[in-house]
Recover the amino acids of this structure.
């Protein structure tokens, strides 16, 4: 079976918290060239992860955390990305809100509150915002 080679939609955000209609933001794995995760608002690219390096998407701050192992399967029969938690007692979720904020939430074992790990760590993480040497455009 030959897979179609097009960007796969991972998630679409709701219009807002009270409106279940599809919103403007999508989170995809673009598989044209080296696979990378891309956040778009409509057709405009807002953020990209950097390419898969065999262990993780090299531009994601989340992958620098050592609580999970990532894998990407890309062959003639299947294509998927997954992660497995090192500590099975960790409760985590990924969210994409109506403003295009993508983040991982991890339930703290001590406080029982969600610790937030944003995908976009700084201004230069936004696509096209900064030029060479992280100088703002």
């Amino acid at each position: 079976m030959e897979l179609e080679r097009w960007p796969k939609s991972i998630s679409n955000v709701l219009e807002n918290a009270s409106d279940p209609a599809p919103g403007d933001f999508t989170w995809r794995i673009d598989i044209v060239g080296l696979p990378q995760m891309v956040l778009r608002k409509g057709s405009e690219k807002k953020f990209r992860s950097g390419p898969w390096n065999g262990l993780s998407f090299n531009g994601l701050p989340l992958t620098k955390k050592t609580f999970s192992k990532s894998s990407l399967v890309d062959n003639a029969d299947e294509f998927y990305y997954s992660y497995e938690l090192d500590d099975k007692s960790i409760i985590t979720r990924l969210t994409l809100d109506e403003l295009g904020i993508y983040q991982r939430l991890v339930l703290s074992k001590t406080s029982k509150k969600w610790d937030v790990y944003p995908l976009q760590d700084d201004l230069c993480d936004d696509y096209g915002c900064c030029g060479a040497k992280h100088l703002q455009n």
User: Anything to note?
Assistant: The chain has a mean pLDDT of 76.
